[in-house]
Design a protein that fits this description.
Layout (H helix, E strand, L loop, with lengths): L7 H9 L8 H4 L2 E7 L2 E6 L14 H17 L7 E11 L9 E10 L3 E9 L5 E12 L2
Antiparallel strand pairs: 1-2, 2-4, 3-6, 4-5, 5-6
InterPro entries: ACOT13 (IPR039298), HotDog_dom_sf (IPR029069), PAAI_dom (IPR003736), Thioestr_dom (IPR006683)
Pfam families: 4HBT
Protein name: PaaI family thioesterase
C-alpha cells in the first residue's frame, strides 16, 4: 500500500484499521487513531513517566504534540491523494494538568478548508467529557 496514492481519509482509515502503522511519533507520545471521517478524527492518548517535567507533572509538550496531531490529521482527512499539509500556527490552551497513566480522548475537527489553508480545532477530554486542553490550528496545504 503506497501512502502517496491514498487520500488523506483512506490513509487515516487504514491506520485506524491497523492496515498500516501509525506515524512514528506515536512511539514517543502514545496516541493511536481509532475513528476518522471527513474532517474529524479521534485518538486515544495516555501520558506516562516518559512525559514528565522536572516537577513531576506531565509536560505541556505532551498536550501540544497530541493537539498538533489531531488538528493536522483532521485537515489531512479532507485532502486528495498526494496532497500534504504542514502546521503554520498552533494555539493551545491548557485547562488543567494532564493526568499520568489515564487514557484520554483527543479529537480534531476541521472548521474551514480552502485551496491553501485548513483551519481546525482540537481538544483532549476524559471519559466524562472534562476538558484538559484545547487548540486551534492553521495548516498550509502543500500541493505539488
Amino acid at each position: 500500500m503506497n501512502p502517496l496514492q491514498l487520500t488523506g481519509l483512506q490513509l487515516l482509515q487504514a491506520m485506524c484499521d491497523g492496515k498500516i502503522p501509525p506515524a512514528s511519533i506515536s512511539d514517543t507520545i502514545p496516541m493511536r487513531p481509532f475513528s476518522v471521517s471527513e474532517g474529524q478524527i479521534s485518538f486515544k492518548v495516555k501520558a506516562d513517566q516518559r512525559h514528565l517535567n522536572p516537577l513531576g507533572g506531565v509536560h505541556g509538550g505532551f498536550a501540544a504534540t497530541v493537539l498538533d496531531s489531531v488538528t493536522g490529521c483532521a485537515v489531512h482527512s479532507m485532502l486528495e491523494a498526494g496532497v500534504g499539509y504542514g502546521t503554520i500556527d498552533l494555539n493551545i490552551k491548557m485547562c488543567r494538568p494532564i493526568p499520568q497513566n489515564v487514557e484520554l480522548l483527543a479529537t480534531g475537527n476541521v472548521i474551514n478548508l480552502s485551496k491553501n489553508l485548513g483551519i481546525s480545532e482540537g481538544k483532549i477530554v476524559d471519559e466524562n467529557g472534562k476538558i484538559y486542553a484545547y487548540a486551534s490550528a492553521t495548516c498550509m496545504i502543500i500541493r505539488k
